Proline--tRNA ligase
Amino acid sequence: MRLSRYLLPILREVPKEAEIVSHRLMLRAGMVRQESAGIYAWLPLGKKVLDKICNVIREEQNRSGAIEIMMPTIQSADLWRESGRYDDYGKEMLRIKDRHERDMLYGPTNEEMLTEIVRAYVKSYKDLPLNLYHIQWKFRDEVRPRFGVMRSREFLMKDAYSVDLDFENAVIAYNRMFVAYLRTFARLGLKAIPMVADTGPIGGNHSHEFIILASTGESEVFCHADYLDMAPPPAGIDFRDPAALQATVDQWTSLYAATEEKHDEAAFNAVEEGKRLSARGIEVGHIFYFGTKYSEPMGAKVTGPDGVERPVHMGSYGIGPSRLVAAIIEASHDENGIIWPDDIAPFKVGILNLKVGDAATDATCEQLYATLTAKGVDVLYDDTEERPGSKFATADLIGLPWQIIVGPKGLAAGTVELKRRADGARENLSVESALARVLG
Amino acid sequence: MRLSRYLLPILREVPKEAEIVSHRLMLRAGMVRQESAGIYAWLPLGKKVLDKICNVIREEQNRSGAIEIMMPTIQSADLWRESGRYDDYGKEMLRIKDRHERDMLYGPTNEEMLTEIVRAYVKSYKDLPLNLYHIQWKFRDEVRPRFGVMRSREFLMKDAYSVDLDFENAVIAYNRMFVAYLRTFARLGLKAIPMVADTGPIGGNHSHEFIILASTGESEVFCHADYLDMAPPPAGIDFRDPAALQATVDQWTSLYAATEEKHDEAAFNAVEEGKRLSARGIEVGHIFYFGTKYSEPMGAKVTGPDGVERPVHMGSYGIGPSRLVAAIIEASHDENGIIWPDDIAPFKVGILNLKVGDAATDATCEQLYATLTAKGVDVLYDDTEERPGSKFATADLIGLPWQIIVGPKGLAAGTVELKRRADGARENLSVESALARVLG
């Protein structure tokens, strides 16, 4: 992409309304624009990051055996009356009357609809296990939306729903998602720690929030410091092997980790000196086994091997890609801007032409741009007439992992400058060497 | 994908509620499920087709220079009061009050919001031309939603918006989209004919509906038969060359083509005998130049090269991917089911194991499945215990373009059967030859 033909509305000033660094940087980098309170349009740069995050999530969901569908945003109130949640859900639910005065709502989540689909099509234990997910916009009418896309009203969510014959199989399904989440967050460059969360009336040990540590987090968390160095499960882990999954879950739940609500001071104090970590945390995922809570009242039943019909055991598994954009920035930035992990950077490489109009710099930049584009690399070519200082600032602000700086002085010496955003390392290299490094 | 681990709820009976063939086939093939009147969940097979259609649209939009963004579904009524459309738009607009009693709405289209974004960020003619698009769910509260996803209430739409300094540049932008649409429909296997559409108070010749002929179409159309053999613009067409674009548009508007509303009987009768085609048509796209209709009242202005500020000239360009799924089926099916064009088939290849449990057929199927999957081909492996007849029927119903049929008899002779869905051609081939044909 040529920057001269792109829409990248950089703000040089720090927006006053933004309280946390991710919100400030997303506004400054021209990633989003607020259209109403807690409702954002995603501008080109933001959309690209959002897509890349969704693709990582999708790959890991598919790898675990989950199947993608797409449920609508508008739901019938009747569906929620079946589960009893229509009246329970408070003002966060956006309630709507259509032209025929029917009660509708903008889905804040999809347990009811998914259960309805299961009820319609899944009749036998032979159709199980099943895990269906979608990535769709949700709406929760927060009283006070804030922190940009971190706590917005309209937000993107990946929600998966597992369906199994009984508790034992549901735990295997739960573990599959647990492992998929660990892999997902690691690929997004996040050190997410699974913490036991409230399971409400169902009880048991099968609800976890995945939390990253960040000074701007909304809640206080307590955990063993060794979590920060734990290696995520490998790509080759066998999702059809319950024992391998359980071993991973056991490892990742073996040390102390709790949110404020579930914090146990005595247990925390039993953690060895120097390993006790208390910090602020941001929730980036939540997985939950809820048994027959919806299948029972809604009549989603299957016939077991014994010929007896019984309600299916279910769980739900959420990750918010739009919130993740902000969470990743909270976890990875410096005073100059965002530092994207390579896999989700909007553009992997920036080419900075320091003297547009100069035949040599133009030719070299065009050559770099053509070569990288042909290799399928996402490149942003800064072909604008801005000053060099402004180009450096923009490339750092928007967090381009690799920056190839092309100026007349360097070219006279046969080199371009290659800069790595993460550590600021710079090297003068031939064009060929710079390409080799970026592609390597 | 192994069919035994997939959710593909095939209906053997013809659903009574479905009036048109695409609706019947989408229900029978387990592609969608109605959740409320005119509101559908996309089941796994439907979601895959929808994604493939979106990808074709996206590739052609990007090729033409349009840039992807993502605007929210929920909009503020205030934005629509600025343009004057809040009161004009009738009951089709889903109006909502949020918890603070603010007037909101579910966007039926995005001209206002896009104009607001342009107003905020685009200040100079140097930032133009600009074309921003998104692919997002829209809601139009139809009195009588019908024909499945062909006329639903919640539907997916790609809407693009061009922004230019003046009329002359806006026409170039219009032509870019005209050409991109021709390419898009051709890639989707559709013979879409651009027909002059109403431009309302703006006048001029810059509004076209793209229409495919189908007996179940909702409107009557009249055109020159030669449109059906016209070759679409090549992939290499230069979108930066206004003359090349204009020549293509001229070619595609040179012959008679009109919807009922714009039909001119005298002009139609002037078409040579034997070339007059009157048929039913389905609208699959609509492009529209609307000048300063929104930029003027909303104050979206740029400074021209002369230093004078003026409102930008805009156009909008819509394609409905969810409706396209149905339109493609209307255009491409037979008595056995759907016939997908290769590029948007949910799975390019089906492997039909006629005797699950037989060591030889199992081994051959697994080998085929592993080889094709490793090559990145989307494969559906029917590893269920259904009868052969049922497997044949399913593969044809869901429209798999290539079907590799593996049975003990064939294997004894060293062959599998390769069937082409489109023409039903069958051949007995070695495994290697079958693979070569499918991959070739």
Remarks:
- Chain B has two domains: 3-71+110-338, 347-439.
